[in-house]
Amino acid sequence: MDQKTKRAREIQDAIHTILLHEWDPLCVVHLPGAQDEYDGYIGSVYSWLAAGSSATEVAERLAALERESLGFSTPANALLPVATSLCALDVRLDPEVGAA
Question: What is the pTM (predicted TM-score) of this model?
Answer without folding.
Answer: 0.90
